[in-house]
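TICKET #2291
ISSUE: user wants both folds in one file
ATTACHMENT 1:
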Amino acid sequence: MASSDKLPTRAENFSEWYVELIQRAKLADYSDVKGCMVIRPNGYAIWENMQRVLDGMFKETGHVNAYFPLLIPEEYLEREKDHVEGFKPQLAVVGYAGGAPLEKGQRYVIRPTSETIINRSFAKWIQSYRDLPMLMNQWANVMRWEMRTRLFLRTTEFLWQEGHTCHETDEQAQEETLRMLDVYRTFAEDYMAMPVLCGQKTESEKFPGAVRTYSIEAMMQDKKALQAGTSHHLGQNFAKMFDTQFQGRDGKQHHAWQTSWGVSTRLIGALILTHSDDAGLVVPPKLADRQVVIIVVGKGDERTKAKEKAFALAADFKTAGLRVSVDDDESKNPGFKYAEYELQGICLRIELGPKDLEKGTCVMVRRDAERDPAGKPKKEFVPLDQAVAHAQSTLDAMQKSLLEKAKAFRAANTFEVNSYDEMKKRADDGFLLAHWNGDAKVEKQIKEETGLTTRNRPFDLKQEPGKCVVTGDPSPGRIVFSKAY
C-alpha cells in the first residue's frame, strides 16, 4: 500500500479511521437506499461466524429457530402504548399495495422488532402449561428509520437475531432473561475477546414495553460505550395485549410471562472498534473468516516448489481445523500483499519461498504482533514440521491477548467520580462510576449538560450507599455513565 493510501490514524480522526477501514477492508459499503448499507463478503463472513456460534449456543439452551413476517399490521403496535410510543419515530409504514392506498387499519409497519406479531402466534399455539416454556429465536432483518447513521453501528436496516420466550411464572421468565444475558456475555468475551459489563438498565433506558431491561456494555478504543446486546423481561404486558393465555396447573387461565433478547450486526462494529489498529482490521481468531494466509514468494522453478509446499501445508492446516488460503498470485508484489492482508485482518501471515524451503522453515507474522520503530511487525522463523502446531498456539495466544489488552484498556479508563464538577471534567475519559439518586429528571439533566448517559448498573460492581453527584440526595450505589454510540 502506498503511503498516500494509508488509513487515517485513530489519533488523527477516529471517526474517519473507522469508516475508511470498513470500506478499504471491504466489509461494507454505502447504499443508494437512505441509511442502509451493503454488507460485502468480507463483512458477511464475520457475521456468518457470529451466527454459527450464537445459534449453537441458543440451541444448547433449548431454543429453536422460526421465522415470522416482515410486515406487521400497524394496529398490532398500537395495542401496547409504551411500545408504540417508544418506536413511533423509527417506524417505516407501508401505505400502498398493488398501486392503491391502504386505509387506516389496513397499513403495515416494516418490522422494527417482533414482540407484537409473534404474540399473535403464541396466543394460538399456547393452550396449557404443558406447552411451556416456549423458547424461540429468529434470524431476520429489521428496519428502524434513523436520522443519523453509521456503518454497522446504526443503520436503517440491519440484521439481527431476536429471541422470544413464554413461561409459566415470573421467576422462570427472570431466570431466562439473565440466562440469555450471560450467553451474550460469554460470546462477547470468549469469542469477540471483548470484555463487557453485565447489568440492569435504568427505567428511562429500558426497552419500550418491558418490565426490566439488562444489557452488556463494552468500551471502544475512543473510550465511548457501546451497548452490545440486550435481554428484556417483558412481564405479561404483551401477553395481555394479545391474550396469550394458558391453562395452569390449578386449572385456571393465566397470562404467559415473556422475555425477548437480541444482538445485531452492530457486533461487527464493536469488534472493529475494540481491536483494530492504524494498519487496519484486527479480528479475534475464533471469528475470523481466514485465520491463516500462506503467501508464496520467489520466481521461476524454485517458486513452483514453494507453491507445491504451500498447498501441502495448507492441507495440513485444514486437517487441523484451521481456516486457511494460499496466495500464489504473481501479479502483485509481496509488500503490497502484506499490507493488504494486514488491512483485511488476516490473523496469521505465512511467507514461504525458495530460501525458506532450503532452511526447512517458514516466516510467520501475527496480525497483532509488536512493531519496530519503522512500523514493521515482528517475524518468527518456524520449522516447517512444526508450522501447524505453532500456528494453533499462536492463534490461541492472540485470542487471549486481545481480551487481556481490551480489559486493561477498560480498567485504565474507568473512574469513580464523586462530584458533578468532576463528572463534567471527565466526561470524555471513559466509564464513570457515579452515585445517582435514580430520578429520571436528573438522568436527563446529566445527558443534556454533559453528553453522558447511564449505561447499566453492573452486577459485579460492589454497591454502597452514597450521595447523588448532582443533588446530594441518597443514592443506593454507583452506576456507569459514559458517552456512547
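ATTACHMENT 2:
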Amino acid sequence: MKVLYVASEAQPFIASGGLADVAGSLPQAMRQRLIGCRVVLPLYESVPQELRDNMQFVTSLSVPVAWRRQYCGVFEAKVDNTIFYLLDNQYYFKRKGLYGHYDDAERFAFFSRAVIEMLPFIDFKPDIINANDWQTALVPIYYDLFYSNNDWFRGIKTVFTIHNIQYQGKYGVEITEDVFGIPNDKRYLLEYDGCINLMKGAIETAHKVTTVSPTYAGEILDPWFSYGLDPILRERQWKLQGILNGIDTVSYDPSTDPLIYQKYDAETFAEGKAVNKAELQKRLYLPERPDVPIIGMVTRMVGHKGLDLVREVLDDLLYNNDIQFVILGSGDWEYETFFKEMQEKHKGKLVACFGFLPELSRKIYAASDLFLMPSKNEPCGLSQMIALRYGSIPIVRETGGLRDSITDSGDGEGNGFTFKSYNAQDMLYSIKRALAGYADKEGWPILIKRAMETDNSWGKSANSYIRMYKALLKE
C-alpha cells in the first residue's frame, strides 16, 4: 500500500502547531510498518538552510491555477528513510510566516493542485491521498472534479483529516472560478452558509473523513463544537472516524532528553524528578522546597484552553493550598495580564513565563508533579501525553483527546485526574483530589510509574490508520 500524506507543515522542516508533529511522525511510524508513506508540503522561505542543503531537485512542472499557470519545482528530502517532497514557488511561499497572507486562498489552491499534478512526474501513484485541514482541503475536491476519471489517476482513494474544525477556509463565492478554477455549476460542493467553505467541500468529496480523536469525532456532530458544520457532518457521518494522535516517544523521552536537568525513567523517576524540581525552582526563583507540589501548565493563553476556569479559582487555590504554580505560554492580552498580576500577588508561589520556549517547556514537564489542562475543547491535545511521559500527572477536563487519553485514577487504575463539566469548582475539586493523591507517599509513586508506562506512541495510531486505509481500499 502506498500513501501520500499532504500537509501545510511538517517536522523537521517547518512548524507552527500540532499538525507539523503529526505530519512528521505518523508517516515515519507507517514506514516502520512497511507502508510506503511519503509526505508533501510547501517549500517555505523559513525552511532552514541546513535542511535545504540536503534536498535534491527532482523535476519542475506547470500547474493550472484557475485561468493561469504557475511554475512548481519539486524537491526531495529523506528523513529517517521517509521521503518528503517540498513544492517550490517563490511567488507564493517566499514570504515571512506560513499563514495569514491576503492571498492564502490562491496559495493553497496552487499547492493542492500541484500535489496531484506532480504525481505522474515523480512516477508515484498512491493508493491513498490523506489531506489535512483546510489548507489542503482542495486536494480531495480537485481529485473528485478533475482527476478521478483520468486513466492514470483512477482508483486513488482520498482521506481528509480534521485537526481543528474551527478553521474551515471560508471565502467569498466570487472567487470560485477566478481563484480556485472550479466551474460555477460545481460551486454547490463548496458553498455553505453564504460563502465558500473549503472544509465543507472536502467533507463532501473525500472518501473518508477522520479526526484526531474518537471523542472529537462525536463532539463535532454537536453545534457546540462544530462551528456550524454539524449538519454536513451528520449527513456524512457514515464516512467519519476518529483516530487518536500519538507523540514522538523518541523525542519526548526523559531517559535521553538533553534539555532537562537530569535524565530518568519509570524506574528512577524519584531521584530524577527531584533534581529537575530543585533546578527549576532555582531558575524561576521559587523557594527550593522538595516536598511542595508543583502544578505546571504549558499552553496557549486563549479562551478555549480553559483559562477562564483557572482565572476564577486561582486565588483560592494559591491562598488555601501549599503549592507552587508554573505556567508557560503566550496568547491573548487579557490572560497574559492576569497571570502577570497573579505573579505579583503570589510571589514565591506562582511564576508566569511568556513566549514559546521549547527547552523550558521540557523542564516544566520534568519538574512538575501535576499538569493542568482544563480545556473547553481539545481535538486531541499532545501536552497531556507528554506530561504522562515525564511523570507529571495530568488534571484534565473530559473533552476530545483528553477524554480518550486520560482516565481518572480514583478507581486505582487510571493515569490522571478528570472532571466533566466546564465548571471552575469541578476543576478545583479535581485539583484538590490530585493534591490529596500527591500526599499519599505510598500510592503516588505507583501512579507516576503507571503514567510513564502509558503507551501514547505513534505506533498505536499508525496501526489504526493502516486498518482504516485497508478497509477503504476494499470498499
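RESOLUTION: both attachments delivered.
EXTRA DETAIL ON ATTACHMENT 2: The chain has a mean pLDDT of 96.
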